[in-house]
Amino acid sequence: MKLSSTAPGATIYYTLDGSQPTKQSAKYTGPITLTKGQTNVIKAFAVKDDGSPDSFVVTYEFKENPNLILLTEVLNPNANADYVISKVISEMTLDEKVRMVWGAGTSQLGAAGNTYAIPRLGITSMELSDGPAGVRLGMIGAAGSHEATAWPNPMMLASTWNTSVLAKIGEAIGTEANYYGVDIMLGPGMNIHRDPLGGRVFEYYSEDPYLTGKLAASWIKGLQENGVGATMKHYAANNAENNRMNINEIISERALREIYLKGYEIATKEADPWAAMSAYVRINGTYCSEDEYLNKMLKDVFGFKGLIMSDWGAYHSPNGYKTGFDLNTPGGSGADSLKDAIAQGIITEKDLDRAIESILNIVIKTNTFKKQIYDKSEYAAKTKLDSNIAKQHAALSKEAALEGIVLLKNDGKTLPLKNIKTVALMGKLAYLSSPADLAKGIYFEGGGSAAVVVDLNEVVSLVDALSSGGLNVVQKTQDGKYLAEGMSTNDALYAANNSDAAVILIGRPGSEGSDNPASNMKLTDEELGLIKNASDAYHSLGKKVIVLLNVAHPIEVDNWDDYVDAVLYIGLPGTYGASAVTDILLGKVNPSGKLVDTWPLEYDYAPTDGNMPTPTTTEMTYTEDIYVGYRYYDLHPEVVKYPFGYGLSYTQFAYKSLTLNKNTLDLSKDGDKIMVTVTVKNVGDVAGKEVVELYVKANDSKVERPYKELKGFAKTVLLNPGAEQKVTFILDKSAFEYG
Ligand code: BGC
Prior knowledge:
Elements: E1 11-15, E2 26-27, E3 40-47, E4 58-62, H1 81-91, H2 94-100, E5 113-114, E6 127-129, H3 154-158, H4 163-179, E7 184-185, H5 209-225, E8 229-235, E9 248-250, H6 253-260, H7 262-271, E10 275-278, E11 282-283, E12 286-287, H8 292-301, E13 307-310, H9 337-343, H10 349-363, H11 367-370, H12 377-380, H13 387-404, E14 406-410, E15 422-426, E16 433-434, E17 439-440, H14 462-468, E18 472-474, H15 489-497, E19 501-508, H16 525-540, E20 544-551, E21 566-569, H17 577-586, E22 599-600, E23 619-621, H18 630-633, E24 640-642, E25 653-660, E26 674-682, E27 691-696, E28 709-715, E29 724-731
Parallel strand pairs: 6-7, 7-8, 8-10, 9-11, 9-23, 10-13, 15-18, 15-19, 19-20, 20-21
Antiparallel strand pairs: 1-2, 1-3, 3-4, 5-6, 11-12, 14-21, 16-17, 22-24, 25-26, 26-29, 27-28
Bound molecules: beta-D-glucopyranose (BGC).
Residues 112, 130-131, 186, 233, 311-312, 449, 512 line the site of beta-D-glucopyranose.
């Protein structure tokens, strides 16, 4: 029998005679040999000398049982997993059961959490790591952290509209997770961009549920193909951050089904995710983790076969265990409260058995289980990625950023830059290097649980990227100050005289825990001043001004874009994103990203303006109902700056030969489908990729329907000038139904 503690460096004391162990009991130094022919009782606890509390006492009882079946039995080729799991559960003590459904607290690897292991039954622990933007183990600069690739943030990944890019990123994250011994990733983030100021929109994909579901499904499939589980989060409507722990959101059932749950339905059916995380919020009066409607919808209606865990600290009572909820995370102490709940008749042991069955069904899929790893100190010792993995992922991360950058404005073919040797780089962010701000001359990633630990030396700054792209970069004024907000007209003229174009960086970081103030949508007076100054100076010399939007959420563009010649949305583009931005500026790659949200002229026009929670809001009604994003703006086109799906290219595409293989979908024929084809041709003069978007509109419906709904999309291959591609979409019943 081997004992181990999740706390590194802890000493374990144990007894073999049934008495409570103390610091005077035997010290554990190696495997304990059990005595045959009798019941062996080992009681043990772990102690750290750093003043942290001692662990609870665990009791292991070993009776000789010739029929004992271990979970490892499922690894035999002909094993019946359901049978093995039910036998293993029947072997568990109540102590073990309550701990199986209760996270084990702090992780040895610095992950957000982990689950309980029962070595005597062959049950390994699962390491649960954030998050949607890459493997997060620790904090930048903190000892014992593990470096990983920070990928472009999910909103930017979504802007690629390229499911194969999402699948490749998922797979690559799986490689890094396996490298560090992580079993389950706490992503993808699938909440809907109900409002641009939602603190975590950068962690989620889009305002549209179909796009969200399809992209999430691809990411999940990529990840899980690598033997690492995905966690769809935060089920179902963590669309804002303010007061997320307490707020009650009133949402109609139709809006839930059509907007907020749809992505989970699509991803569940397509990708079979291993886990889902219930959101902090209450919906229509009930905390998500305890919500029978939500839990049953996921498991019984959508066919979800994984485990449902709580968001960190979102567990409020044992009630959820009765309705399909499985695992309280991060857990730690407190599992014994479930024994009281059973004694009081609030839940039954059967409820726990049901939850454990869900958990064990996932445990058996993990690589940790397949290799029966109980001690992860070898993984814990690694702090850097293998150099080959890091190199391949640098290239992939850049590729994703290249496809996610969106060209918003390009007057007079300002971009790609031609005959330009020197640019002036302006904006204080371009010169900020701070781990706390997650910035190195660019906001490369978002904060909170999306912040991946990177080596700041690896992060490519914009200055470095432009220089490696072969450009001279003017960074300072005549007096040696950086070209930034607050510079004078003379400084601007100096820069204009000494460079061929100005590149201005505007940033908005993103992090969880609170929503952004409406003022974040507007440029500050200093930013506006910088743009106007630069514009006057450069335009007076016939030179161009380009703005880069390094933003975690949409912002207002209408009140300043007339001053500039070109605008690019560059998201939070990841460790290597700045080199992607440079390739786009130089025309090495033609931008092909499209917006995943509608950008209104002004925030005041948003359907949710005035209806977002404050830090003290305890109840809020989703009054816009299903009219989220373009479903609302299609009825108010006059307030739209950039529509959903918008994005320019350095080339042009023509669409022809749109055909349907038939005009009617026969609902009486199960699985009937309509095939839509269209040919896309590059009619410009540089190679490029196009995103083809297919919308469905109900012409004649008894119920009110949105003007249009996205029901298909595809990204073409790189089409050379004159080249064309036939794109095919399949529409089934789900493309036409509502709710
Ligand atoms: C976040 C989750 C995250 C968890 C663990 C929570 O605060 O809402 O998205 O996975 O923490 O870090």
